[in-house]
Amino acid sequence: MMDSRSMWRKIPGLDPRFSLILVFMGMFVLTGIFETGYNFFYPYPGMWEVSLLTMVVVSACGAFIAFFPIRSLRTAEARLDTLLNGSPAPQFVIDADHRVIFWNRAMEIESGIKAAEMYGSTDPWRAFYTEQRPTLADLLVDGNVEKFPEWYTGRITRSPLIDGSYEAVDFFPHIGKNGRWFYFTASPVRDDKGVLLGAVESFINVTRSKRTEEVLKANKLLLEDSMELAHMAYWEFDLPSGTFIFNDRFYALYGTTAEREGGYRMPADVYVKNFVLPEDAGLVQERIAASLSSQGPDTPSELEHRIIRRDGEIRYIKVRIRTTRDKTGRTIRSNGANQDITLRIQALISLKESEARYRNVVEDQTEFISRFLPDGTHVFVNDAYCRYFGLKREDIIGHRIRPRIPAEDRERVKQFFASLTPDHPVDSIEHRIIMPDGTILWQRWSDRAIFDSSGTITGYQSVGRDITEQRQAEIALKISEARFLAFISEAAMRLKNPLTLIENNLESVVSDIDRGKVSIPDLTLQLRLQTKNLAQIRSNINELNRAIVDHSGGIPDASKKFLTE
Questions:
Q1: Cα gap 444→467, rounded to integer Å
Q2: Which strand ranges, in their side-by-side order, compose the sheet holding 180-190?
Q3: Domain 86-212 falls in which CATH fold?
Q4: Superfamily of domain 230-346
Q5: 4, 167, 369, 472: which sits with the fewest CB atoms below 10 Å from its CB?
Q6: How high is the pLDDT of residue 309?
Q7: Is 15 in a helix, a strand, or coil?
Q8: Are 107 and 127 spatial neighbours (Cβ–Cβ below 8 Å)?
């Protein structure tokens, strides 16, 4: 690899070190000529030796004088070369003709281009771009500061540290696998007379910090969106001044603006006076004082209270307060967030009112209502249920209550509950139950099975009523109907026999009359006999009508009168 010293030798012009060597060589030659001439014109014994010694001494002094600055210069060059090549920051230097005269090792690694390939070239842009264009150092050498916006739109600024230097942050998509972000500076290089000799450009890889910054920005936007959706606003409390520090989102939550409130700072007492409902002011002040006086190292707390917006609307908010302290217990920070929970509170109030109405309806029902788990553990029963079974609510809720069912009905009840499915979750059943005193009663239940998303039964909700009287009435009615049918059958037989006798007698009389065999007395006797039979029939019919009326409660009064008179 070519270093800065070899490049120095390639720069046109005479190396000052060689100038010194030539000077001292000239002095050596001149000294020799002078001594030879002097001895030629003024010879004396031993003078040649003296002249030779003089020449050696002068040459030695000249060589020493020439060698010392050369060695110092080489040492300085070596140190400079080590310093620049050892820098972790990629750097390159161009001269006034845009030729690369330095390309350090870090630049080799970052760009993938060797220094030997770049020395003397005028295309350092190859390390950063795919098409030819000037680098920042090139623009400085040309003095084209006005062209900066053309190549670095909105990304370049004047350095506040070095006069004439510029700095920028930019993304280089063609460097590395996924591109890299660099902070880079370019500074002009001038001699002691101010003549421009070239420019140096340095780079610092800020990809990690830039991507971290992008992640932070994305998280900040996400946080802001989340706070917007959650109706939340952030605030801080300045401990020395005792003032809150708000923001636009906070003021929007309270229906006001920073301009209306005179800025983003507000004393705590002013905030409580202007925005906290008077009934809740004492609670808020107490919680603020408690949060600031707590001795814990990191004290989070929550508080719900009402506020009055600037438009007069009363809203509910939830305040989350975090107070941070150092190891000595001194409060070093207090901040938090306020969340509008009005909709949730209103929903809870409506729910409680609805539950109260539902409970009143449920408790006023004569039906007994219960809700129980698959294992029989009851989670709800109404008063009617408790009264019916003669138990207290606390003796039922949380306990496995299984009513006693006669053996004849158990299998049918078991099959009934097994028939409840997600496609058929509701059904009704009537069965008997054995009460604690041994009495057997009838009940009718309407049961709904409750399923989770996987189709598993999680519980049952049942509404039942006692149908014992109805069942007893049905049984009595069946018995009455049986008796009535027997009576009707008997009455029909009793009616049929006289009518048959009358019919037969009349046929016999008519036959006798036709044959002239019947006498007036016989005919009179037969008529009297049939009249008696007809009276018996009328009596039977009246008795039948009375039986019909007694067993039929829905017959109109006029019909009853017709049937019984």
A1: 6
A2: 100-103, 91-95, 196-205, 180-190, 166-172, 156-158
A3: Beta-Lactamase (3.30.450)
A4: PAS domain (3.30.450.20)
A5: 472
A6: 94
A7: coil
A8: yes
* Residue-range domain boundaries for the chain: 4-83, 86-212, 230-346, 365-466, 481-564
Task: Evaluate if pTM is beyond 0.70.
Answer: no
- Provide the pLDDT for residue 418: 93
Q: Taking the alpha carbons of 211, 216, 217, 222 in that order, is the dihedral positive or negative?
A: positive
Three-class DSSP category at 347: helix
d(CA 297, CA 35): 94
Query: DSSP label at 399?
Result: S
Provide φ and ψ at 131, rounded to 5°.
-125, 155
Residues with Cβ within 8 Å of 96's Cβ and at least 6 positions away in sequence, in order, are 141, 196, 197, 198
The dotted CATH code for 365-466 is: 3.30.450.20
Max CA separation in the chain (angstroms): 228
Structure-model confidence comparison of residues 267 and 526, the more confident one: 267
Of the candidates 114, 131, 119, the residue with the CA atom closest to the CA atom of residue 95: 119
Average pLDDT value for residue range 551-559: 54
Q: Centre a 10 Å sphere on the Cβ of residue 354 and count the other Cβ atoms it contains.
A: 10
Q: By percentage, how much of the chain surpasses pLDDT 70?
A: 66
- pLDDT top residue among 214 and 2: 214
pLDDT at 144 over 80: yes
State the average pLDDT for the chain: 78
Residue 488 CA, chain-centre distance (Å), reads 80
pLDDT score recorded for residue 12 = 41
Weakest-pLDDT range from 74-88, 229-243, 528-542: 74-88
pLDDT band for position 475 (cuts 50, 70, 90): confident
Query: What DSSP assignment string belongs to 19-82?
Result: HHHHHHHHHHHHHHHHHHHHHHHS--TTHHHHHHHHHHHHHHHHHHHHHHHHHHHHHHHHHHHH
Is the distance from CB of 196 to CB of 219 less than 8 angstroms?
no
Sheet holding 426-434, edge to edge: 378-381, 368-372, 457-466, 440-451, 426-434
Quick one: tokens of 120?
């003397």
What percent of the chain clears pLDDT 90, i.e. is strictly above it?
31
